[in-house]
Amino acid sequence: MQELNKLYAKRQMACMKLEAAESKLLRQAVKAWSSRQGKNARKIRTTDEERQEMVEAAPREPYRKFLQDLVPDDKLPQHRPYLSGLFGKKVDTIEYCKASHTFRTMMHFSST
Asked: What is the pTM of this model?
């Protein structure tokens, strides 16, 4: 039972770290998108039909490529995975969390 509790705690930490990194990435992308649209774009009132057209025009398929265009690789959420984050090379947090054993195990059990 103690082993299960430890595994659950590790999974929770991995999920929280992944969620925090993805949220940070999305905040950076929205900020970059807003600055590209210009400050005047926020002041223009649009109708529901115009908003729907803008949503439909937004790229869907190349999602990762679109994010890379907005947020360069050196601005992606990164962390140092070893020794409490004090030493070692920084790695991409999102890729690290998705590739971690704990997260893969969790995804395996949740899909069954």
From this structure: 0.64
